[in-house]
Amino acid sequence: MAQGYGVNIPLVVDPTDSAYKLLDNVEDVVRQNLKMLVLTSPGERIQVPSFGVGIRRYLFENMTSSTRAQIDQKIREQVRAFMSYLIIDNIDISVPLNDLGSPDDSLSNVLFIKISYNVKSFQSFSDFLTLELTI
Prior knowledge:
Blueprint: E1 6-7, E2 22-23, H1 26-39, H2 65-82, E3 86-94, E4 110-119, E5 125-134
């Protein structure tokens, strides 16, 4: 029987791993859990209504320094509450730029987030999660 730390999301049928493809290392599990935390909207997870950053609600906001600070704070709060074994080093939030270096209005529904983090509690490693969000 195949062994793994968790099921890969999205689900992929893989008869070598059992019914679904499994995550076979801790780094992938942590990255996937962080991705789910950022993408989940508060109230979406059953019986844990406070879980989730709800990043999609920021897609059509004016991406000011205040909005970036709100997103940064929300990610850090959620990580402290639900993934306390992570130490966030940096969160980079950006939008696509045009040739002149200003925000590209034709891509106003795109947001880039890069979260650099360390895990020190059960296994020591550094990694990052990069998300490109679009609607």
